[in-house]
Design brief:
This protein has 109 residues and is mainly α. 68% of the residues lie in helices and 7% in strands. The protein has a domain of 70 residues. A two-stranded antiparallel ribbon has the order 1-2. The chain starts with a helix and ends in a 14-residue tail after the last helix. The mean pLDDT is 88.
Length: 109
């Protein structure tokens, strides 16, 4: 499985390199209300947009999973408290004398 990953990653890197070599022309990027326009190669603008989109998507997914992470923390705390309570209950039981052995069954008449 690891070999397949590295083959796929290598092909993807090669395609990214070919894309960058083929798209070196300049493009004007203008964030109108925020500031001045500037020029950059096409591949830089596209890869930058991909990075920003990935980062925003990861942030949104992380925020959406907040409730699940909170429930997991609470469940972990509850499990630890129950484990401590069980250990406290077992301590006196282990120190107590064992019950007397059961009598053997009576022989049939």
């Amino acid at each position: 499985m690891r070999i397949i990953y590295w083959i796929f990653a290598g092909l993807l890197a090669a395609l990214a390199g070919l894309f960058a070599l083929g798209n070196r022309g300049d493009v004007r990027v203008d964030f109108w209300p925020l500031g001045p326009a500037f020029e950059m190669p096409v591949f830089v603008a596209l890869v930058g947009a991909l990075y920003v989109g990935f980062g925003l998507g990861a942030l949104i997914a992380w925020l959406a999973q907040g409730r699940t992470r909170k429930r997991a923390r609470e469940a972990t705390k509850r499990a630890e408290a129950l484990a401590r309570e069980l250990a406290d209950v077992k301590k006196p039981a282990a120190k107590a004398e064992p019950p007397p052995p059961a009598l053997p069954p009576a022989p049939p008449i």
